[in-house]
Amino acid sequence: MALPVAVAHQRRQDGTVLRALSRARRSWSRMSEADLDGSWQRVGPAVVLATARGQQAAALAGAEYVPAAVAAQGLSPAAVGVVEPAMLVGIASDGRPLGSLLYGGVVTTGQALNAGVAAPVALQQGWAWLQKAVATQVADAGRVAEFTTMVATPSVGGYARMVNPGACARCVVLAGRVYRVEGFQRHPGCRCTHVPGPEDADSDIGTDPMAYFESLPTAEQLDAEYPDLTVAQRRARGLYSQEDIFTKAGAQAIRDGADLSQVVNARRGMSTAQVNVRGWPAQGRATRREVYGHQLFTTTEGITRRGQAYRSLQQAQWARDEVKDTGKRYARLRTPRLMPESIYEIADGRDDAIRLLKLHGYIR
Q1: Beta pairing class for 294-299 and 178-180
Q2: Does the residue 183 lie in any domain?
């Protein structure tokens, strides 16, 4: 069965996120409120590197996971090409350079200081913002690698959504739901997983929302069982109550017979990986372009002569620019490459999606 493979994979990805956060936290601890920009110039490269290394590990694991999950179901893991995980490294989900996004931790700290917040608290608020951004970017790289591998694997017709302990109410409502190969809805910090399978995959491959709800203790039961632990300590151990996930009123309503999906607005705060998360500074070289009536994200990362996407796009005879940079000349493609989910948005079927993924360097 694919479910044990998916559970093991998610644990591996969780470990990758935690290692990236640990490295980023050590670097952030050297920030000084007296000179935020100067501190970031010293600290930022290490934070970006920690995140990029996490992206690389998550993307590699994601590309390896899909064939294993497919084979566990007795399906053929044969793919039409090899996914290039490196194409997802160093780029934020919305296409901008990773450092541009992570600078938001500095922005958050500065805003807190300007509002009169004490320096240690302001730096902690900056880290809280950065923590969510790092975790999301690492997880997104893994998910996009998984999704791209699913597109490249003909035996995969869809996927089921699997939730994990501590999943929020929005995700629980979607648990076990089967989708065709399409963009994965997530929120910052989301830990849900694709479980690839045939188009008519059994929805039981995921988690049943009511079964998940009923598996949780009530807040009263949890307090009685762990009287010496604070809420934060319980959550650190993966212990959650129905009230923690669905709120006190929501949990009571569900226990009283209310429909779980009606209690929770499942899509509030959910987006696919490339969509900019509210509050993330819109800086850098991520751009929106309208193609065939769709608002799409593109990136300029990887399109210089040494970039991985340059050769495949050049073969399509796209125009190039000669660009001066610090006294040197280098060739750059005039048209930025599409982010993976923009490709899925405009592709005319699976074959066309594979063609575009190859063209933009995500599959070779």
Answers
A1: unpaired
A2: yes
Pairing of strands 337-338, 294-299: antiparallel
281 close to 101: Cβ distance less than 8 angstroms: yes
Residues 45 and 132 both lie in one domain: yes
Rounded to two decimals, what is the model's pTM? 0.72
Strand-pairing partners, residue 299, are 337
The span from the CA of 205 to the CA of 4, in Å, is 10
Collect all residues with Cβ–Cβ distance below 8 Å to 321 and sequence separation of at least 6: 331, 332, 333, 334
Helix (H, G, I), strand (E, B) or coil at 327: coil
Q: How many CB atoms lie within 10 A of CB 153?
A: 22
Regarding whether 69 and 157 lie in a shared domain, the answer is yes
Yes or no: say if 333 and 287 are a contact pair by the CB < 8 Å rule.
Answer: no
Judgement on whether residues 198 and 223 belong to the same structural domain of the protein: no
Tell me: do 169 and 235 sit in the same domain. no
For 164-207, what is each residue's pLDDT tens digit?
A: 777 777 788 777 777 776 666 777 777 778 788 775 555 444 45
The 10 Å Cβ neighbour count of residue 316 is 10
DSSP 154-196: TT--EEEEE--TT--HHHHHHTT-EEES-PPPB-TT---EEEE
DSSP type of residue 203: G
Residues 6+ apart with CB under 8 A from 272: 183, 184, 185, 186, 341
**DSSP helix/strand/coil, 258:** coil
Which residues form the domain of 347? Answer: 287-359
CB-based contact 306:353 (threshold 8 Å)? no
Amino acid sitting at position 99: G
SS3 46: helix
Do 192 and 171 touch, CB atoms closer than 8 A?
A: yes
Query: Nearest-CA neighbor of 347 among 210, 183, 186?
Result: 183
What single-letter DSSP state applies at residue 34?
A: T
Instruction: Report residue 51 as tokens.
Output: 């995140």
What are 219-275's pLDDT values in tens digits? 899 889 888 888 878 877 778 888 888 888 888 888 888 888 777 764 555 656 555
Same domain, 223 and 339: no
